[in-house]
Amino acid sequence: MKPWLKILIILAVLPCRVFSNVDNFEGKIKILKEGVYDTIQLVISVKGDAVRIDEVNRHNAVQLSYLINLKHETIVMVSHCNKVYTEVVVRPAANDLSSDVEFIRTQNTMVFNGDRCVQWRVRDRARNTELTYWVVPGKYNFMKPLVDILSRSDTPLSILGYFPMNGGYLPMLTVERTIFRKIRATATVVDIKSQKLLDDIFAIPLGFRECRS
Question: Where are the domains positioned within the chain?
Fold first, then answer.
């Protein structure tokens, strides 16, 4: 069990009502994730307890989609080029907290894309990692259950698995560094659009076959 997962057990004791995204944000959030060797454009679509994360290539074509059910804590990965889908393993929740993980809610602020953001930091001594989140408040209640699921699975947005105590907040900019301050990865929100979404986009496309490992 990875030590940094243990911080998220706090979320498990909160009332189930807090985990609902009904009557809150519905729409799309575009994120640019940059690592040492690659850059990925991601689009998060949210409607109620349904979330879809699309990997988009430089030609603006969707390569992979992750269909996430927040209520049932399931993830299905869809490959559009191969027309197949498979279930992603979501590991069990941790049952204890780690003294190696430190959460710091700072008073530092920054204006990012017109929004005044507050700085949160998470240090994981076991992994020699520090993450900085520049966050804004809003009706982003889907973030709490989404982060919990992402932290227990392997997806392009697992960097958000550290995001702590996040009821209603959205990280506009995430920076992961080593203890030597070298940047490992960043995730930047480049667009947020509230809009009504069709239920169809959260379903496995017709004609796609299941691929079992």
Answer: 3-196
What are the beta bridge partners of residue 76?
Answer: 67, 87
pTM: 0.82
Residue burial 21-38, b: 16+ Cβ < 10 Å; e: rest: beeebbebbbbebeeeee
Which CATH architecture group holds 3-196?
Answer: Clam (2.50)
Predicted local distance difference test score (pLDDT) of residue 21: 45
Radius of gyration, alpha carbons of the chain: 17
C-alpha–C-alpha distance, residues 10 and 15, integer Å: 11
Residue 100: exposure state from Cβ atoms within 10 A (0-12, 13-18, ≥19)? middle
Number of Cβ atoms within 10 Å of the Cβ of 213 = 5
Residues 73-123: tens digit of each pLDDT: 999 999 999 999 999 999 987 765 566 788 899 999 999 888 999 999 998
Q: Are 144 and 18 in contact (CB under 8 A)?
A: yes
CA distance 193 to 176: 26
